[in-house]
Amino acid sequence: MVVLTETAEAEILSRMVDAEWGGLTPEAAKAILAIRFSDADLERARDLALRNQDGELTEQEELEMHSYRKAANLLAILHAKARLALRDS
Fold first, then answer.
1. Domain 36-89 - what CATH class?
2. How far apart are the C-alpha atoms of 58 and 66, rounded to whole Å?
3. Cβ(37)–Cβ(60) below 8 Å
4. Boundaries of every domain in the chain
5. Per the count of CB atoms within 10 A, which of 20, 50, 63, 73 is most buried?
6. pLDDT in tens, 3-42
7. Global pTM?
8. What is the DSSP string of 1-15?
9. Is the Cβ–Cβ distance between 83 and 20 less than 8 Å?
10. Residues 46-85 pLDDT 10s
11. 45: CB partners within 8 A, 6+ apart
């Protein structure tokens, strides 16, 4: 089975955003920059990361941690695109 690395997934998502969005309005960029993880999600992600360092995660928790990483990567890409749109507006 072939597995994409998170870096490859982030690069693909970044290209998709470039191809589909063209340009963001300042209002849209500001709305994207307002998207954040909830405090509960941040706490859960921290807990999973700490427990992962100690090798204490179940298989399901490892998948959950991976999902948080993927969501964080996507959010980072969206935020970067939004900051560029605001810089260029």
1. mainly alpha
2. 12
3. no
4. 36-89
5. 73
6. 567 677 777 877 776 655 667 889 999 999 999 999 999 9
7. 0.78
8. -----HHHHHHHHHH
9. no
10. 999 999 999 999 999 999 999 999 999 889 988 998 998 8
11. 37, 65, 68, 72
